[in-house]
């Protein structure tokens, strides 16, 4: 698994953990930072995860509004893993203009297949495909 893929996976883990544990995202991010210091294999993907989650924290309301504008499902009705995936990918779309849109959407789809359902993959890729143009212009 590439460092970028590991970084996305870690960002997903952080966003998901904060959601299901009902904790502030920055608190979970800090816990993960401390783990990265102690575990060298985590340090390699830390920068990417930190970047994505920091963007999500800074632009939380904007991200949720972009998702709400294009999704047929309200965020609060989405499964927690799908909510974390769409927020993660939207944050990357907003904050990483150098990363091709197709790569971000494909990676979110792969993570959905691994951690959610095939139906979620299609749903997320549809939402992200529609959202991508708006997000890229907002970034």
Which helices and strands, and how do they pair?
Blueprint: H1 3-21, H2 25-38, H3 40-58, H4 60-70, H5 80-95, H6 101-115, H7 118-138
Describe this entry's structure for a reader.
The chain has 139 residues and is mostly helical. It has a single domain, classed as NusB-like (N-utilizing Substance Protein B Homolog, Chain A, Orthogonal Bundle). Helix content is 83%, strand content 0%. The protein has seven helices and no strands. The longest helix is centred in the C-terminal third of the chain and has 21 residues, at 118-138.
Q: Which structural traits does this protein have?
A:
single chain; mainly alpha; 7 helices; 83% helix
At the fold tier of CATH, the topology name is N-utilizing Substance Protein B Homolog, Chain A
Determine Rg (CA atoms, Å). Answer: 14 Å
Beta-strand content: under 5%
Compressed to H and E, one letter per element, the order equals: HHHHHHH
Subunit organisation of the chains: single chain
For this structure, what is the CATH class?
A: Mainly Alpha
What is the helix fraction of residues, given as a range? over 70%
Number of helices: 7
Low-confidence parts: none
Shape: globular
At the fourth level of CATH, the homologous superfamily is NusB-like
Number of domains: 1
Structural class: mainly alpha
Largest sheet: none
Topology, number of strands: 0
Average pLDDT for all residues: 91
